[in-house]
Amino acid sequence: MEKNKRIVTAAITGSIHIPSMSDYLPITPQQIAENALGAAEAGAAVVHIHARDPENGLPSANLAHFDEIINRIRDKNKDVVICLTTGGGAGMTVDERAAVIPRFKPELASCNLGSINWGIFQAVEKIKEFKYPWEAYVAEISRNAIFQNTFADLMRITAIMDEHGTHPEFEVYDVGHLYNCGYLIQAGYVKPPIYLQFVTGILGGIMATPYDLMTLHTTADRILGKGNYIWSVIGAGRNEFPICTMGLLMGSSVRVGLEDNLYLSKGVKAKNNAELVSKIVRIMGEFELEPATPDEVRETLQLKGVD
Questions:
Q1: How confident is the model over 265-293, as a mean pLDDT?
Q2: Are strands 290-291 and 5-6 parallel, antiparallel or unpaired?
């Protein structure tokens, strides 16, 4: 991939934001697929997919929901790289989270590199009325929630990925997760090229400041070796565009989308994922950077391809 190219990933719906936070959050398989197609048209080479229950927006591990989303995307776009989640949502078991790998055998899938406290209670404190009863409950129990990704979980998920030819996209929520990655490489659970997503700004993980991003990048250089990994940056909420821009200038790729951030600008909610992708592509253009194509992503990450 040329030096002025960057991977743009669109995270379509996720499992963190609740429907009461935005009327534009895609819920149904049709809405999720349409948002993914729009993001790809706007310049995203990769679409990161979670599923939700179309009746109430609850994050879903139902393989039928994933099946409909994937088929709707592939009916209209055979090229975009589909990255499936193994992060799932609150309360899901590791087996439920990983079930998408043997079922769909994706080219790329997320793999969270360690456990963290996971708090969304702050984000919903100003909401006075919830659309669905589960939303207030999930937000409240997050005060006492741990997003579990033990070494046993990591070994199991990476082994399933290896068996089915799925390349891991490692989600790094804190510095210690990079040491976990180093162990997985040393122990032979994963092989290069190593693809890291630095997830910043989540309560319970590392924050989205220039100091934190520099710490992640320099630590990865020390542990994995400079130039021995490909990296991308995520910023939660209002941090999305500032920290992604900093990452671009440092050489990273970027992830944007309604999973991470609901606003296009201060006080203006994004109506779809394509708006967020279009904005980061415009910012890239200001620095003479270009979004990579899906085929360039496949070559760089050594993915097995759609077929």
A1: 98
A2: parallel
**DSSP symbols for 226-262:** TTSEEEEEEE-GGGHHHHHHHHHHHT-EEEESTTT--
What type of residue sits at position 80?
A: V
E runs forming strands in 45-166: 46-49, 51-52, 59-60, 81-84, 108-112, 116-117, 146-147
CB 260 within 8 A of CB 11: yes
Which of the four pLDDT bands, split at 50, 70 and 90, describes residue 60? very high
What average pLDDT does this structure show over 143-170?
95
Alpha-carbon distance of 248 to 290, in angstroms, equals 11
**Cis peptide leading into residue 54 (ω within 30°):** no
Q: In whole angstroms, give the CA distance from residue 165 to residue 162.
A: 5
**Distances in whole angstroms, Cα of residue 78 to Cα of each of 12, 74, 281, 306:** 18, 5, 22, 8
How far apart are the C-alpha atoms of 12 and 42, rounded to whole Å? 13
Query: Is the Cβ–Cβ distance between 247 and 220 less than 8 Å?
Result: no
For residues 156, 160, 162 and 165, what is the CA-based torsion angle, rounded to 10 degrees?
-160
Angle between helices 175-186 and 210-224 (to 10 degrees): 20
In Å, how far are 28, 74, 150, 165, 178 from 69, measured between CA atoms?
A: 9, 9, 29, 21, 32
Query: 5 φ, ψ to 5°?
Result: -95, 145
Reduce the DSSP state of residue 57 to 3 states and report it.
coil
The conformation of residue 132, written as its DSSP 8-state character, comes to S
Whether 90 has a pLDDT exceeding 80, the answer reads no
Spatial contact of 216 and 198, defined as CB atoms under 8 Å apart = yes
pTM: 0.96
pLDDT of residue 307: 77
Burial of 287 (0-12, 13-18, 19+ CB in 10 A): exposed
